Amino acid sequence: MITIKSKSELEIMRKAGEIVALAHEKIKEAIKPGVTTKELDRIAEEVIIKSGATPSFKGVRGMPDAPLYPASICASVNDEVVHGIPGLRVLNDGDIISIDIGAFYGGFHADAARTHPVGKISIEAERLIMVTMECFYEGLKQAVFGNRISDISAAIQVHAEKNGYSVVREYVGHGIGREMWEPPQIPNFRTRERGPRLQPGMTLAVEPMINAGRYEIKIDANKWTVRTLDGSLSAHYENTLAVTDGEPVILTKLD
Ligand code: MG
Q1: According to the model, what pLDDT value does residue 255 have?
Q2: If you measure from the C-alpha of residue 207 to the centroid of ligand 1, how many angstroms do you get, rounded to a whole number?
Q3: Residue from 141, 246, 155 nearest 201 by CA
Q4: What's the confidence (pLDDT) of residue 109?
Q5: How far does residue 24's CA lie from ligand 1's centre (Å)?
Q6: Is residue 189 part of a domain?
Q7: Is the pLDDT score of 115 beyond 90?
Q8: Residues with Cβ within 5 Å of ion ligand 1?
Q9: Does residue 124 sit within a domain?
Q10: pLDDT digits (tens, 9 = 90+) for 189-200
Q11: Is the pLDDT of residue 92 over 90?
Q12: d(CA 36, ligand 1 centre) in Å
């Protein structure tokens, strides 16, 4: 069931969103060649816990035979699409890294992702990061009362494909609130379904996952890390937003 949040619930989600945004800010400052993804995870976890929240992703169940998710963030480098597990991998000049963070505060979750350059990156990688962010904002424009979920999906797909990129099919955005993953699903591509109509008080995690090459993906032996099948770069951009009776409001940002 799609949950509608009250004004006071939205205020709590905004606070959860600020914590996620702050963790993103601290991570952005720390990203440079030579840093491990485990160090970035430590930084995010510290921000989340010091803020009185808990990391949403730690201990999450994945595929039936996968271990519980062991970290506070996902850190996906280059051809990794999502669910890269932080570890001893050292970031190199020219890499791109997608960071996904979720925080649980006052009974509600917030969820956001950003892709960052490491040192000096190629013009092509810069363009992928930029277009992926633009895809989110194209989707955001459609997140208005009376529209349907499919309007968000179509806007994202059109912008990605117009720029020569492809949209990952297996992973989609989602409703969010007391649960990290609530209905409705929000594909980043058109489907046969028009999807539910958007209503004030719906809170959505809209998260384009855009590949520079083809859209097919594969999953590593660790049963978590998703990467492009063709080895091309992938970028991710996500915010938690609230549908209102006017413009949509991004919750995962600093006040
Ligand atoms: Mg999400």
Answers
A1: 83
A2: 6
A3: 246
A4: 98
A5: 14
A6: yes
A7: yes
A8: 111, 205, 207
A9: yes
A10: 999 999 999 999
A11: yes
A12: 23
User: How far is the centre of ligand 1, averaged over its atoms, from the C-alpha of 27 (Å)?
Assistant: 18
Q: Quick check: 151 pLDDT over 90? A: yes
Is the CB of residue 132 less than 8 Å from the CB of residue 125? no
Tell me, in angstroms, the distance from the centre of ligand 1 to residue 56's CA. Answer: 10
Is the peptide bond prior to 184 cis by the omega test (within 30 degrees of 0)? Answer: yes
Q: Are 221 and 227 in contact (CB under 8 A)?
A: no
Residue 105 φ then ψ, to 5°: -140, 130
Task: Flag whether 255 is in a domain.
Answer: no
Give me ligand 1 centre to Cα 246, in Å.
Answer: 24
Q: Which domain holds residue 69?
A: 7-250
Residue 6: predicted pLDDT: 98
105-114, pLDDT tens digit by residue?
A: 999 999 999 9
Average pLDDT (136-163) is 98
How many angstroms is it from 73 CA to the middle of ligand 1?
12
pLDDT over 90 percentage in the chain: 99
Q: 91 C-alpha vs ligand 1 centroid, how far in Å?
A: 24
CATH code for the domain in which residue 230 is found: 3.90.230.10
- Across all residues in the chain, what is the average pLDDT? 98
How many domains would you assign to the chain? 1
Q: Is residue 2 part of a domain?
A: no
